[in-house]
Fold these 3 entries.
Entry 1:
Amino acid sequence: MPITAEALFRTHFLPLYPPDVQGDLARARTVDANPGKNPAILAHLEDAARIFVARADTLLGREVHLDFTDASVHRLSAALTPERRDAWRVAGEAGTAENELFNVVVHGAAYVGACILHDSRRQAHWAVRRPLWESVIELVSPAGEAQLAIFQWWLKSLADDDAGTLADRYRTHVEVPTWPATSLPSIAPKERRLPRIAKGVRYDVLYKHLKAHLPELRDLGKDFPSAERFSELGLRWLDFLLLGEGDEGRMLLMYGPGEGGLHLIWLDRSGFHKSSFIPAESFPDPVVKTEDDQLVIVVSWEKKPVVHRMLWWGP
C-alpha cells in the first residue's frame, strides 16, 4: 500500500503534539507562538539546522555538502529516496522522539528554512508555531506574500503518492519568485514588436529573423535546442514578446503551438534561459499577454479555456 503524507504524519508526528494542538491543528498552524520575538526560540531552529548538517552524510549514505545554499537543497532532495525513508521509519519507535524519521524531518525542515534565510537579498523570516517544527517561513517576493510550510513539504516529498520533490517545491516557491530578474541587462525597449514567423518555423529562419528584428540578441546560447530538436517541436507559428519591468525588455519570450500544446522559450541577453510546455488543444490558438509583472497564458483544454499565470521570467 502506498505511503501517504497523511499516514506519515499521523503515525510518526501527531502523537508528539500537545493535546490542545491535536484538537485544533488548523488554529495551531496560524497562531504566532513567539509574539514577543524571543531570540532564544529562533536559536532552537538554528540549532536544529546545524544538527541536521552534522548528521546528514550518515543519514543519507552519501556526501551531500550541505552549505546552506539553494543548490544544497537540490542535492538533499535527490538523496531522499523511498529506501532511506523506510529505513528511518523503523529506526526507533514510531510516534516517539527516538524515531529517526521524526528527527530527520524536524531537523531537515529547520535546515531548508535556514537556506531560504541564508540569501540576504530575500525578505524572509521565521514565523514560529507550536510545536516548533510546524514553524513557517514568511516570504515577500514579486509574486506576493507567502507562508511556506516546509515541514509539510518534507512529508509530501517522502510520500509515495506525491510526484513533487522537495527541490520542486523549493524551486517553485523560493527560487523562482525571488530570482533577481531585474538585474538582467536590457535587450531592447519593451515597446518593440517583433513580427510573427507565420510558417516554415525552422532554426535557420529563426536565426535570420532575430538578426533582422532584434540584432541586440547576438547569440541563441549554447543550451538552445539544436536545429534538429527545434524542428521536432513542429511549431505551426512562432511569436515573440519582450518582457521586463517598466520600459525595459530584459528577456525575450518565444512561443508557438506544436504537437500537443504550447512551447515557450525564454532568452536573456546571453541566449537561452529556460523553456516550458503547456498541454493544449490545437484550436483555438493560445493567447499570451502580460498584465503588470505577470505573464498570462490562455489555452484550450478539454474544450474549455484554461488560464495560466506566472511571473514574467517564467516558472
Note: Residues 142 and 288 are 20 Å apart (CA to CA).
Entry 2:
Amino acid sequence: MADRNPYVILGIPFGAGREEANLAFARRARPLRRLGAEGRDRMTELTWALNQIDEAIKEPDTVLWLYRIPHDPAVLAPSGPGEFAPKPRPMARRSGDSGPGLDAVQRAAAREHLRHLVLDRAGRTAIPAP
C-alpha cells in the first residue's frame, strides 16, 4: 500500500480527472510561492501528485495499491446514534440496595449543615455584658 495518496495531497475526491487535479494544484500551489524552501518541498509533493493522476493512474477503478477515502466527506459525520456515536448503555448494578446508606449520608450531611449554621450564627451573636 502506498504511503502517499495523490488525491489526498491535492484535496480532490478519488477518481477525479486531470482538469479537477489542475485546478486543485493551482489553488494549493499559489500560497506556497511565499514560503521559500518549505514551499518548494511542498510544491514537489504537489507536482508528484499531479503527475500520478495524469500518468500513473489511467483507470482509478482498477488501482488496488492506492488507499481510498470517500467522495462525500459527510459519510464520516455521524447522523445520529450508530457506529460513530453509539447510545450509552446503562451499567448493571454491582452493589446492593443503597437506600439505608443514602439515608445515613443524608442525615450526616444535615447534621454537618446544622453545625455550620450554628457556628456561623454564634460568631455573629454578641455576648451580652453582665
Note: The radius of gyration is 34 Å.
Entry 3:
Amino acid sequence: MLKLPQYSRKDLLMLFWAVLPLSLVINFIIYERGYVTQPRILIFATLITFSVVGASALIYRTIGQAFRQRFPRDADFFKRTMLLIFLFLLTSALIIFGLFSIYGSVGLLPGSGYENKFTWVYLLIGIVVIFFAFLNEGIFSFDRWKNELEETENLKVAYKQSQLMGLKSQVNPHFLFNSLNSLSGLIQEDTARAEKFLDEMSRVYRYMLRNEETQLVTLATELQFIRSYFSLLKARYNEAIELHLDITEEDKGKRLPPLSLQVIIENALFQNKTARDSPLVIQIASSEGEAIMITNNVQRKVMTEIVEYEAGLDNLVKRYQLMNQLPVKIEEEATVRRIWLPLIMNTEEVAV
C-alpha cells in the first residue's frame, strides 16, 4: 500500500518559495513583457500558474515516494531514476498542456505563437523535474542513512542493555549461593568431588569474567565452558537434569556470542520442573551447518516471581540483531521447545 508523504509547515513554506519563482519564470516565457504591463494577466496568470505548479510539485513528491517504496535497493538506483525521470517528463507534458488549456478557457492565451512558448516552458519544466528526480534520490538516500543511523543507535543501546543483563546474570547471587551450598555439602560428604567441583566453579567464573567484553568465541570454547557449567548444575540437580551434545567438528570452529548457551539453559531451568523420574533433558546439536539447535522437553512449572532469565533470552535475540546476523529462532510446542542459534563465520577468533 502506498504511503503518502507527510508535510510539515516548514515543508509547505519551502514548497511555496520554490513554486513562486518558477511560476513567474513560466509566465515571463509565455507573455514576455506583457506579463508585467497588463495587471489582469499578472494577477490571474500568476494565481493559475502558482496553483497548477504547486499541485504538480505535490504530485511529483507522491510519485517519488511510490518509486522509493517500489524500488528501495541501492542496486535499483539506475532503474529507479530513469523511470522516475521518464514519468516526470510525461507528467510535465500533460500538466503544461492542462495549463495552456486553462489559459485558453479564461481568455489568457496569447493570440499566436504560443506553440513555441509551449516548447520553451516544457524545456524549463523538463530541466526542473530532472533536477527534482536527482534531488528526490538524494533525499531518499539521506532519509535511509538517517534511519539506519537511528536504528544502529537503538541497537547499540539494546546491546549495552544486553551487556548489563549479561553482567547481572554472571554475578547472579542465586547461582553463586546455590554453587556454594553444593560445595559446602560436597566438602562434608566427598572431598575429592568437592575439589573437582571447586575446580569447575573456578573455570566457570573465570570464563564469565574474561568474556565480559568479548563479542564472539568459538563454539568449541563455549561448549568447554558449558561442560564445566553443567557439572555445577549436576551437583545440585543430580539425576533431574541431562545434557546431550551432538556437534560436528566443522561447527566447533564457528562462532557465537559468549554465554549464549548458558542463557538458554538457565531459561529452560527457570521455566521447567525437574525431577529424577522425569528429568529435564537438554540437547545441543548441529543444524545444517548454519546453526545449533538447543532442544528441551517442556515440563512447565507455576511461576511465582519474575526473574531476569526471560530478559536474558530477549537480550540474546537483540544481540544477534545488533551483529546483523540471522535471527534467533524459537519454536515451542506442547512437549518440546527448540531454539536455533545461528553460527557466525569469517570473523576474528577471540581467545579465552
Note: The first strand starts at residue 217 and ends at 218.
